[in-house]
Design a protein that fits this description.
By secondary structure, the chain is α/β, with parallel strands linked by helices. The protein has eight helices and ten strands. The protein has a domain of 163 residues: P-loop containing nucleotide triphosphate hydrolases (Rossmann fold). The longest helix is centred in the C-terminal third of the chain and has 16 residues. The protein is globular and about 45 Å long. The N and C termini lie far apart (38 Å). The mean pLDDT is 94. It binds adenosine-5'-triphosphate and magnesium ion (MG). The site of magnesium ion has 4 residues, from helix 1.
């Protein structure tokens, strides 16, 4: 018996003006599942996540979350329903301190429960020592941790992460990987992860899709990620 997917993306098309990027992408994430979206630079991975979150309006297709069609909803309504988004390039408020970044996010939530901040800090204990520091002065890796912590403050049921290890120093890559793994395995968070780093994807993902030419060219389980065709599709 298979459960209904938590997130279901069907026939998604997206374009920038006349430049079409996605030509009908299907991807599903099971409750508690960890799905990895892969593909070369510029194939439309970020475009897909932005369309899933309503940052970009798709030109066709539907996004269903927890059985509800959210395709027409604004981003903040998707966040309220449990979709936590960490965009590429770890967006934080650089002029605000770490504590203020978390507080501002908390104030925008429906639950307003301060323990959500403590829970997010438990995932990234390193941030506890940096609470008074302006986000703009953090390293890339620390900013990424803060960006994920901010998404956690919203108490998501699913985390949507766009290249969380990009430009991050190796010691912190390991911390971020461990955090994603714990959130997924211990807290049962579903994850949709864009990740170029194949070894990390292999360790974390239950399933993957590879985008090429605006469609899902290959999909499968982590075991399938090892074959030659996959390596060719991802060739760097
Ligand atoms: N705001 C925009 N306006 C116009 N074209 C865009 C815009 N954003 C992205 N594109 C183009 O759309 C295509 C897909 O870009 P996207 O950022 O989704 O790719 P990606 O797979 O996330 O790449 P990367 O691996 O570099 O992050 C690219 O050709 C890109 O140049
Ligand atoms: Mg991208």
């Amino acid at each position: 018996m298979t459960a209904e997917p938590l997130l279901k993306v069907e026939g998604l098309e997206a374009a920038y003006g006349r430049a079409r990027v996605l030509f009908g992408v299907d991807v599903a994430v099971e409750p508690g599942g960890l799905m990895c979206v892969m593909g070369r630079n510029g194939v439309g991975k970020t475009t897909l996540l932005n369309a899933v979150m309503g940052v970009l309006a798709p030109t066709a297709g539907t996004v269903t979350f927890d059985g509800e069609d959210v395709t027409g909803l604004p981003t903040h309504e998707r966040v309220r329903r449990g979709m936590g988004y960490v965009p590429q390039g770890h967006e934080t408020f650089p002029q605000l301190t770490v504590a203020e970044n978390l507080q501002v996010t908390l104030e925008a939530t429906r639950h307003r429960d301060r323990t959500a901040v403590d829970e997010a800090l438990e995932v990234f204990p390193r941030l506890t020592e940096l609470l008074g520091r302006k986000a703009g002065f953090l390293s890339g890796g620390q900013q990424q941790q803060l960006a994920i912590a901010r998404a956690l403050v919203t108490r998501p049921r699913m985390l949507i992460l766009d290249e969380p290890t990009e430009g991050v120093q190796p010691s912190i890559v390991a911390e971020i990987e461990a955090a994603i793994e714990r959130l997924h395995r211990e807290r049962g968070l579903a994850v949709l992860l864009v990740e170029q780093y194949l070894e990390l994807a292999l360790r974390l993902a239950d399933g993957f899709v590879i985008i090429e030419g605006g469609v899902v060219r290959r999909s499968g389980t982590a075991a399938d990620l090892r074959d030659e065709e996959v390596k060719r599709l991802l060739a760097v």
